[in-house]
């Protein structure tokens, strides 16, 4: 059995503040420890659940956040910045499931720790074919292109709710209950490491209940920027790229991967 794990940082146990997730900030080094410990708990749980091949992608910011000398030896790890067209190196249709660890709710979600969609500075919100979409939906679509279902998502309570709303049948684990963008009721990381494996094991056992995520084409992506100058920076050909209003760009495409790649260019 093969499982692909993608790891973001905002939803990791013990994290609630942007300074904890930003390289160069005072609190970042201890967050790397929290991140690495949670990744190790997840890899151990997957090994216990029978996974024979595990790829773990460091998906936060630069993709260089793990403490490499402390990583669990039973997985291989993808490091470094990602390109959308090959966001999950090594992924193919032979994988049995995908797991999203430490994720966060989409931009604009009320009482959600560090809610955003890809960029804190640029993106106000995204809509795909008329429905709001955040990073969970994006990642699930990319896995879905290979026929691989997302079987498990962890993060705060709003992250878990978004995953269920977007994906339907998926197993979730709450690392914290958010009460605001930077506040919440946090579970002690040690408790999370002890508990997360139980849900992970169930997700692996019952993975057939989860299906690969897809949205039928043709596709329209509406991108609302934080301000008008971010929208000004793009070229509009009025054929497949349109300016809807001061800060909104609309992309049309028949090819989903190409559309997702164009979204951030
Ligand atoms: Zn992140």
From TrEMBL:
Domain of life of the organism encoding this protein: Bacteria
GO molecular function, one term: metal ion binding
Binding site for Zn(2+) 2: 8, 60, 104, 135
Binding site for Zn(2+) 1: 8, 10
Keywords: Metal-binding, Zinc
Residues at the catalytic site: 116 (nucleophile)
Gene3D superfamilies with a match to the protein in the record: Dipeptide transport protein
Stated name of the protein: M55 family metallopeptidase
Species, as recorded: Paenibacillus aurantius
């Amino acid at each position: 059995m093969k499982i692909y794990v993608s790891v973001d940082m905002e939803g990791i146990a013990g994290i609630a503040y942007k300074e904890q997730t930003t390289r160069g900030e005072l609190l970042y080094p201890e967050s790397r420890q929290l991140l690495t410990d949670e990744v190790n708990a997840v890899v151990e749980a997957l090994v216990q659940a029978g996974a024979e091949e595990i790829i773990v992608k460091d998906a936060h910011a630069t993709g260089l956040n793990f403490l490499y000398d402390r990583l669990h030896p039973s997985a291989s790890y993808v490091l470094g910045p990602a390109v959308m067209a090959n966001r999950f190196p090594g992924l193919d249709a032979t994988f049995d499931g995908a797991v999203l660890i430490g994720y966060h709710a989409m931009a604009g979600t009320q009482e959600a720790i560090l809610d955003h969609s890809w960029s804190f500075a640029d993106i106000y919100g995204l809509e795909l074919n008329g429905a709001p979409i955040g990073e969970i939906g994006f990642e699930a679509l990319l896995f879905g292109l290979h026929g691989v279902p997302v079987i498990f998502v962890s993060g705060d309570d709003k992250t878990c709710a978004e995953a269920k709303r977007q994906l339907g049948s998926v197993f979730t684990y709450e690392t914290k209950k958010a009460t605001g963008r930077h506040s919440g009721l946090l579970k002690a990381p040690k408790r999370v490491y002890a508990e997360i494996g139980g849900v992970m094991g169930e997700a692996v056992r019952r993975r057939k209940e989860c299906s690969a995520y897809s949205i039928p084409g043709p596709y329209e992506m509406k991108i609302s920027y934080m301000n008008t100058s971010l929208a000004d920076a793009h070229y509009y050909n009025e054929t497949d790229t349109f300016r809807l209003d001061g800060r909104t760009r609309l992309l049309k495409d028949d090819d989903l991967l190409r559309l997702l790649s164009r979204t951030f260019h």
